[in-house]
Design goal:
Helix content: 25-40%
CATH class of the largest domain: Alpha Beta
Oligomer: single chain
Number of domains: 2
Number of strands: 20
Strand content: 25-35%
CATH superfamily of the largest domain: D-Amino Acid Oxidase, subunit A, domain 2
Order of helices and strands: EHEEHEHEHEHEEEEEHEEEEEHEEEEH
Largest sheet: 7 strands, antiparallel
CATH topology of the largest domain: D-Amino Acid Oxidase, Chain A, domain 2
Distance between the termini: 24 Å
Radius of gyration: 22 Å
CATH architecture of the largest domain: 2-Layer Sandwich
Shape: elongated
Structural class: alpha+beta
């Protein structure tokens, strides 16, 4: 293999959903792209999410209207682009007398959600008759319910979606290497040299899309960065069978929320998620017993006595880490949006991708393709 075979227009570090999406957007421009990952495509956080393609209903409470609208626009496009992988599902939200948010507030929220989804959105939210809800959701406690709301959001298989995006990029010439260790990254006046084993890959543009590993990558290879992340882990547990016929959005104590998401294609129910800040390296983040206990406690508070979930009913658990963006000057200033951190030396460019989520990989990828000028 000659030197010419080792030279690319852009090298992307990280084959999560953002790295794969960026590779596809750049490949659609005719760029020659190389993607490197220390694991497998989509094997990190991109395959350990809540598997939702959603705008983030709860983000309305903190008035992140731009983030929600962008995500809902991406949701619409993903429904068109990958109909076999992304589908709309009704989400039910029972509101109890003890719920931390009143019915009117949640009704306003789902109606605003409909508006932000745009005129092309054909899925409309509304109240559900108590009798219908009681008959359909037999596992849930009915006493104390004030109202029941129904709204719609997207559901996917996150890992399958990530690998499909990677396959689309490969179809346009994108090259992916999995299970590789990047020994060194050198930023020279002429461009980047990325060493993997005995091979040295060259490019004038480098994209660091390593998700929750980004701070570790910046430190290891001495790359400049204007931001850093706070690592927030999310735990999901899985039980056999379908606890509910449709997904549910429930309010936990302290205004937190969690989902019950039946997956008939897998014959299981997914329950999540938690939010805990991690102070260790990403590879050292594990499911803790207290995380499982928390989810069991919260879900059992809504289930009838004969439908309670026991610890031994939990067949599996997964943990993914969400990289929330923090400004280096004020680490407490967090954002659930993403930051594209561009550094330029002459004709060479380094772009760090901080944050982002499954649903908005489309918008993020297109923004990256616009920022990286064509050589």
């Amino acid at each position: 293999m000659g030197d010419r075979d080792l030279t690319y227009d852009v090298i992307v570090l990280g084959a999560g959903i953002n790295g794969c999406g960026i590779a596809l957007s750049l490949s659609e421009q005719g760029r020659r792209v190389l993607v490197l990952d220390k694991g497998v495509i989509g094997g990190g956080t991109s395959s350990k999410s809540s598997r939702l393609i959603h705008g983030g209903l709860r983000y309305l409470e903190t008035m992140r209207f731009g983030l929600v609208r962008e995500a809902l626009q991406d949701r619409l496009e993903l429904l068109r682009r990958y109909p076999e992988l992304v589908g709309m599902r009704p989400f039910f939200l029972p509101i109890y007398k003890t719920s931390p948010r009143p019915a009117w507030m949640l009704w306003v929220g789902v109606k605003l959600y409909d508006v932000l989804a745009g005129w092309q959105n054909k899925y409309r939210s509304g109240f559900v008759k108590r009798a219908v809800f009681e008959k359909t959701f037999g596992a849930l406690k009915q006493d104390g319910i004030v109202k029941v709301l129904k709204y719609y959001d997207g559901k996917t298989n996150d890992w399958a979606l990530t690998r499909r995006v990677a396959d689309d990029a490969k179809g346009l010439g994108g090259v992916f290497f999995e299970d590789v260790d990047v020994a060194d990254i050198r930023w020279l006046e002429t461009g980047f040299e990325v060493q993997v084993g005995d091979a040295v890959y060259r490019s004038q543009q480098l994209v660091n899309a390593t998700g929750p590993w980004i701070d570790e990558v910046v430190t290891r290879y001495d790359l400049p960065a204007r931001f850093q992340i706070r690592k927030i882990s999310g735990i999901h547990i899985f039980i056999d069978g379908l606890l509910t016929p449709e997904p549910m959005f429930l309010q936990a104590h302290g205004k937190r929320i969690f989902f019950i998401i039946p997956e008939p294609e897998n014959g299981q129910t997914m329950i999540g998620t938690t939010e805990r800040e991690e102070g260790v390296g990403i590879d050292d983040v594990w499911v803790h017993d207290e995380d499982v206990d928390y989810l069991l406690r919260e879900v059992n508070a809504y289930l009838k006595p004969d439908r309670q979930i026991r610890r031994e009913d939990v067949m599996d658990a997964s943990v993914g880490v969400r990289p929330l963006v923090a400004n280096k000057e004020d680490p407490t200033d967090l954002s659930r949006e993403y930051e594209l951190d561009l550094h330029t030396r002459g004709e060479t460019q380094l772009l760090n991708v901080f944050g982002g989520k499954l649903t908005t990989y489309l918008s993020l990828s297109r923004h990256v393709a616009k920022i990286l000028h064509v050589k």
